[in-house]
Write a structure and sequence with these properties.
Blueprint lengths: L1 H17 L2 H21 L4 H32 L7
Helix pairs in contact: 1-3, 2-3
């Protein structure tokens, strides 16, 4: 599970750096479907399945936000300044 969380964090960061909100919505829906499927296949109880789904979504969206912040900082520091 630790590797999956790290993978989700890298995925969210990369999506935040490269894409806009529409791609996040697509990735979020895919992560939801995969986490629901894996929760049922692994025979988790309902509270455990809900917790796994929430942690996966939170990890993805938090790292997406960090990717957006890094992208904005990068763009702001590399903007062309007018020459005097």
């Amino acid at each position: 599970m630790g590797y999956a969380a790290i993978g989700l964090a890298f995925l969210g960061f990369a999506v935040g750096m490269l894409f806009r909100l529409k791609m996040l919505l697509l990735i979020t829906a895919l992560v939801l479907l995969v986490s629901v499927f894996l929760s049922f296949v692994s025979c988790f109880t309902f509270p455990d399945a809900v917790l796994i789904i929430m942690v996966a979504q939170t990890t993805l969206q938090t790292s997406y936000f960090l990717g957006l912040v890094v992208r904005v900082i990068f763009i702001a520091t590399h903007r062309m300044r007018p020459a005097l």
